[in-house]
Amino acid sequence: MADMKKHKLGWIGIGRMGYAMAERLAKAGCDITVWNRTKSKAEPLAKSGAKVADNLTELADCDIVFTMVSTGKDVKEVLFGPNGVMSAGGKPKIIVDSTSISLEESAEIRAKLAEKGIKLLAAPVSGNAKVIKVGKLTVVASGPQDAFDTVTPYLEAIGRGVSYVGDGELSRIAKICHNVMLGVVIQNLCEITVLAEKAGMQRHAFLDFLNKSVMGSMFTTYKTPALSNLDFHVTFTPELLRKDIDLGLAAGRAHGVPMPTTAITRDLVQTLIGHGYDQDFSQLLLLQAKASGIELKPENVNIGDGL
Question: What one-character DSSP code corresponds to residue 273?
Fold first, then answer.
């Protein structure tokens, strides 16, 4: 059993994902201090045992600092900015970044940290806030092996699976590939679900069959209530999906890999955004229905999401 108080942890970014991840570390008994631009969003974590910082510099003496913010620019700002973690001279030993950023930004941040003798573990995640709460988040990590070994107990406390894929920015590629698949799969799932309904089936009945077949997955099961009941509360926005598909297409161009299915999906996600759909990315179902000449209604069935 790992000593969860062996290292002093810092956490930056208390959004939907960051809150749930930091909460699991706090509840696991870690010595963790959290910071968020809007402090009030972080304050409830005190009930779980976290300390809430007023300033980023309070995290400078932590052994490990996790960052889960919106963009690469934000990562640079909280680490290197005029009021960043290291602005008063202190520095942590390891930075663990779970923000979805490009390979180029990640490499730039890694190089700047290396100049200060700090190791970067790039650790993107798969899941959402609900997935985190039930302990099913998965993490893919890349960077120095010794940094990964040090951080592993904390990553395992956040989720159910941690994969080490090597040095450098390889985990960024893994997460980009993952989210490209997310976009392509949801689009295809919406297409066949609308086809089944237009042919006369109820959506939930078709999806029940699909989920019990070899083609079913944790993802198709998880999205079944949303597609059946038209419950599009946000798990992942169309804008964020578009960003990750763009990263995937850019990587494909850089490595000479044709990605025609991904390119078509990107255009459909852009169309979704252009039509004003701004809730969950699974609203692609509504776009598909409109293109197919049918209007969907909630089926109002009590159906589990598998979590």
Answer: H
Measured in degrees and rounded to the nearest 5, phi and psi for residue 34 equal -115, 150
87 and 15 in a common domain: yes
Task: Answer whether 185's CB lies under 8 Å from 219's CB.
Answer: yes
Q: What is the dihedral of CA 243, 245, 248, 252, to 10 degrees?
A: -130
- Report in angstroms the alpha-carbon separations of 110 from 75, 183, 298: 11, 28, 47
> What is the span of the domain harbouring residue 207?
173-291
Are 37 and 119 in the same domain? yes
Which pair of tokens denotes residue 158? 């956040």
Q: What pTM did the predictor assign?
A: 0.85
Residue 96's H or E segment, with its range, is strand 94-97
Task: Give the CATH number, domain containing residue 164.
Answer: 3.40.50.720
CATH number for position 285? 1.10.1040.10
* CA nearest neighbour of 294 among 197, 207, 227: 197
Domain boundary among 168, 196, 225: 168
Task: Give 100-155 pLDDT, tens digit per residue.
Answer: 888 889 999 999 999 999 999 999 998 877 888 888 899 999 999 999 999 999 99
Rounded CA separation 29/283 (Å): 39
My answer on whether 199 and 141 are in the same domain is no
- Alpha-carbon distance 259 to 42, whole Å? 40
